[in-house]
Amino acid sequence: MTTVCLWRNSIYFKYFIMVILILLFGALFGLLIRYADLNRFDVISGDATLKDFTVAKTVLLIIGAGAILLSIEIAFGLASYHVKPFILGGVVLGGMLFGIGMAILGYCPGTLPVSMGEGSIDAFVGILGGLTGGLAFTWSLPTIQPVLGPDYGKISLNSLTDTHPVLFFILVMIISVSFIALAFVLHQYEKRTVKDRDVNYRWVVTSIGMAILNGIVFLKVTSNRPIGASTSYPYLSDSITHFTQNAYFEKVKVPGHWEYVFLIGAFLASFVLALVKGEFKLKAVYSHWEEAKGPSVSKRLVWAFMAGFILIFGARMAGGCTSGHIISGGMQLAVSSLVFGIFVFSAFLITGRLFYKKKSLTIKTQ
User: CA dist 3 to 7, 10, 14, Å?
Assistant: First the structure.
């Protein structure tokens, strides 16, 4: 009995419970992503070319519903803010790089391991590129540090209306309802214009589930932090190469470890589900890529590696990614995250229009 009590009170037992909880959060994240096919290359790259609006409307609904939920949690003292600072250069330049990388890669830092769990070889290569990008960022940070500024601090709707709580909640409701309404406007537009595939409501289930999951992770009794993914890449690459004796690794090692375990949970859930459903298949080239760039596997993998590098380097410049910055930060109505989202999707759409158009132009000329 004494041994059992000592074990339960030991740091090892607490760490074990924490890891199991994070793995569970990651597994739920992976399953929710899979349910709406948000990890699929054709879905994300399709969004970049305005052929698929699943990503855009899901992000809008998560932010809208999540902002209301999180504001209530914080008002009751159940959670706290984790706003990312508005570092102008990093947010703007990093956002543009991230958008470029996401359009070409067709994955986000958090969806890469989910797709790898289904057998996506290009996602695995994208992860390798991301790890290299994370290592390159750690190495180059002292040199590029001046470019990342200036730092305007942690600005959010809450900080801007600090002495006016009633005004804050009114604005939260107005902004949240606007985001939710825009998500359904996009959905109706997609239903009218898309004829070659089924436009369903699975994204709504995933959106609500993701908002609730993020709200749970934010709670002080669980993790007291937002969901994120990109910090795990420099954490893992720096750990593997033993490049840990630097200030940046010290800064990211705790959140990086959390996100690393979280993404393992997402990968395992996706892998097990793919095996159970008989959907696991090694594949590198998907239809949207083949239509624009051809069937070459080597070409796809080279681009996947380079895009993964750009994606993570940009994410670390900005201090976050789709899940950790746009969604988690958007739920907090943080200025840095909303500005990051604007630059990400601007670069994402421009890159999608230019990058996936070149092959079709060549074919027409021939």
Answer: 6, 10, 15
